[in-house]
Every structure is written in structure tokens, then in C-alpha cells.
Amino acid sequence: MTLHAIQILRTSSLPMLLEQEIEHVILSGEFSPGDRIIEMEIALRFGTSRGPVREALRGLESSGLIEQVPKRGFFVRRLSAKQAADVYDVRAALFGLAGKLLAERITDDGITKLKNFVSDMDTAVAADDFSRYVTLNFAFHEFIVRGTGNTALAQQYLALIKHLRLYRARSLMFGDSMHASHAEHHIMVDAVAARDPAKAYAAHVHHVETAKQRLMSATPIISEHQEK
Amino acid sequence: MTLHAIQILRTSSLPMLLEQEIEHVILSGEFSPGDRIIEMEIALRFGTSRGPVREALRGLESSGLIEQVPKRGFFVRRLSAKQAADVYDVRAALFGLAGKLLAERITDDGITKLKNFVSDMDTAVAADDFSRYVTLNFAFHEFIVRGTGNTALAQQYLALIKHLRLYRARSLMFGDSMHASHAEHHIMVDAVAARDPAKAYAAHVHHVETAKQRLMSATPIISEHQEK
DNA sequence: CCGTATTTGTCCGTATGTATG
DNA sequence: ACATACATACGGACAAATACG
Known about the structure:
Two copies of one chain form a homodimer. By secondary structure, chain A is mainly α. Chain A has ten helices and three strands.
């Protein structure tokens, strides 16, 4: 593991590698929101000293995944229900823009690929293969935002997705939610394939807004004692 | 200078202070896009060692103001015309959302403050006081995005504004641009004051789109040999 | 193309502050 | 409330790579 890191080190710096690794550890759920991150623990795990680890943590702090309390250390950030709702609103705006731009710019080949995503998800839904659906769904969304050719948009959107994983009551979606959500995918792709920007915009915004509704209605009212 | 930093150090960590200071140095134009940042130079300037400086630079990298080439160092990021245009598109989407949310949630007191901003700008425009107009304009935009109560939105928007200062052909706006731009402010505030979300959304999006048009049409076609 | 100076990358040591018994 | 253990914060030193003459 350490040797592997050293091999790659030639092209990418150690702090950047650590940043990716730590991010993966957080997003995979091994470190949960609110958890304290001990520098030495990370350093030992990856066989480095604390210097590069601190740099990596500082990078993750700027991207919003962790936060620092000056003389106490770094903690995995915790998203309240309100913050999650706020993020969904921003995400809806960005995804709407993505849909509009995609409808304006997509190639015939791109349309084919979009339809392939949808039919693959059709299969997963029919088979009730939730795990595969989630994977395809993420790839589908990523394809849409990257397909716009607007890298600022893609980066912002993908960063927001990561933030949402810090919300404790996430991924409660299953069963009916999967069906309802996927039904919207068809509408989105149809609008893009028709190269209708206004329709695509509306469909993409609506897709995120209904996802927000589903998540929020599924979330029990929890005391909000930490709004930052 | 150093002593001052040490005084404040009790509440905020040194790397965070350095991050703010370096960001200020960049945004004030002392360091220009493309410039190389030498760690030791920063360290000497603020009387610290290189460790905290490296952490600060790593933070600025994640927020997009600088970029790192592995064994060569950090450089102030340079925005191409296309990248600037992309950022404007994202900014328009976010600002549109801000206008909509503000129209839905603003208090009577908030409306009063908005109108005060506009009348202050009226005065600045009438006096052709461009410098004051720019200051007020920024405060006005910040008031709008913060007034939504959506911190994710405010942070993303303000980060984008910073990015735009990395575009070389920026701030060419003067004379007619100031008048045209300010005329749109009236429309925006009227829509918000009428608590009409749809109208406010449209006015805010339009405001950023016309700003993009002005900037792009004022920009000579430059060779784009660096698209990342 | 080679040698030297400069700069980055990493590690370690010490001090200071915080949590815990 | 006090002492101890632990973790962070910062500075400094050494090795390696790059830039420059």
C-alpha cells in the first residue's frame, strides 16, 4: 500500500494522494460525520509523516468535507437537515443549467450514450438491482454535467454531491423512490434528445427538486442544535 | 506585522490567517495570474516557517485560486476566456436562484436595505464615481446572496466572484456599462420588493448574462493555448 | 551539456494547548 | 482542582529535484 503510493508519487504529490485517500475513507463511511480525525493515525496508516497529512486535511477543509477547530483538530463535517436542503436547492439550479446547456450542445453520439444509460437503468430497475442502479445513476449524472463542456459547472456539481453524503439521513431511497426517480430520467433525456433547452432545464430542475422532497419527507424532524 | 499575527493566533490558526492574507495579495493584484509563488518568500514576509505557508497554499488550491505543479511549485491560476464565460454561466444560475429565494423570503426591513443600496448607487452613478460604485455593487450582490439564508449558495457565489478576478480582461466596465448595469439593478429590486419569485429570477439571471455579454464583447479574441 | 544555486518535499523535535483520570 | 497523557502547532534540517548560467 505504501509502496504503491510511492510509485505514483512521481506524477502526483503525496499530499494530493492523501487527500484523495482520506476523501475516499470519509465518503465510504469509514469515518462518519462528527468523527475526529487524528493526524498521527492517518500518517501511520499511509506510512508518511504528519506534514503531508496536515496539507491534505487543509485541502479537504477548503473543499468543505471536514472542518477544523484551531487547537483541537479536524472533524468530519456534519450536515444539518436545513443545510442539506440548501445544498439541494443549489444543486437543482446547477443541474437545470446543465440540462439546458446539454440540450443546446449535445452531439448525436452523446444522445446515443444518454439513451444507453437510461436503458441500462431500465434493466436495473426491472431487476430491482438497487446497488447497480445507484452506480449507473451517479455515472449518468456525471455524464450530463461533464457533457456540457463547462468544467466549472461540473466541478461545482460533483463537489455538492460529495457534500450531500455528509448528511446522516441520506440514501433512504429505495423501492418506489427508485421507480419514481427513474421515470423522471426518461423525461430529461427526451427533452435533451429533442434539443429543447427550456424543457430540458425544467426537467432537470424538477428531478432534483423531487429528490429533495423525497429525502426531506423521509427525514424525521430532528433537533437542529448546530447550524454553524 | 508578525506580532500582530501572533496576537490573533489565539483565535484562528496561522495557516488560516495566511490563507486570507495570501488570497488578499492575489486578489489585490500584487500577484498576477501565472505568477509563481515561492514558499520561502511568503514565509519571510509574514515571519513564519514554511509549514503553515504550505498548508495555506494547499487550501487556496482547493478553493481554485492557485494550482500546483508537483515538483515545481504553486502558481496563481489563469482563467481563459472560455473558462471565464463558463464561470459566468454558473454564476447566472446561482444568482437567479438567489433572486428567486430572496423574493420568497425577504423581510420588509430587507427591502428597505435593498432600496438604500440602489439609491446609494444612483448617487454614485450620477457623480460618475466609479470606484464607489464598484464597492457598493459588490456589497449589494453580497447582501442579495446572503439574504437568501442559504449559506451554501452564498459561499459558492462569492467563490465564483473571486475566480473571475483571475481573468485578465476583467473590469473593463466603465461609462455606459455602469449605467446599463445599474439600470438592471432597479428591475431586480422592484421584482424582489414585489415578492415575485419568477420575475426576480429572470431579472437576476439577465443581469449576469448581460454582464457576460459586455465582458466578452469587450475582450479581443486571444489564442487559447491553455484549456486545462 | 554540465555544475551550481535555488526551491520544493518530507521528516523530526520541541513547545503549547486540550482532554481525562 | 491537579497532574498526567495526548494531540496539535510550529520551526528547523536534510534530501531530492528543478532551474539557470
